[in-house]
Amino acid sequence: SGMPRLTRILNSLWDATEVYRGLYFQDGLNHRHINEEHAALIAALRVRDTRAAVAAQAAHRERSLAHVSNQLAG
Fold first, then answer.
1. Is the separation of the CB atoms in 68 and 24 below 8 Å?
2. Burial of 57 by CB count in 10 Å (0-12 exposed, 13-18 middle, 19+ buried)?
3. Residue-wise pLDDT tens digits, 47-66
4. Which end of the chain is more exposed for a tag (fewer CB within 10 A), N or C?
5. pTM of the model
């Protein structure tokens, strides 16, 4: 991005989620969903479809949050 401050902020956020990523990736069945969601996001980015990219990211974030929340709740 050529934006060092933004890169530092994103790296800090990424590092802060390490424990939750471990929970998220621990479930082998979840890998298929992760791959599908990432593929949808990449496809939208390739054709520069901003709305689809934002929607794909939002859906991925919501599903990730729900999955980790369920794991934390037991």
1. yes
2. middle
3. 999 999 999 999 999 998 89
4. C
5. 0.71
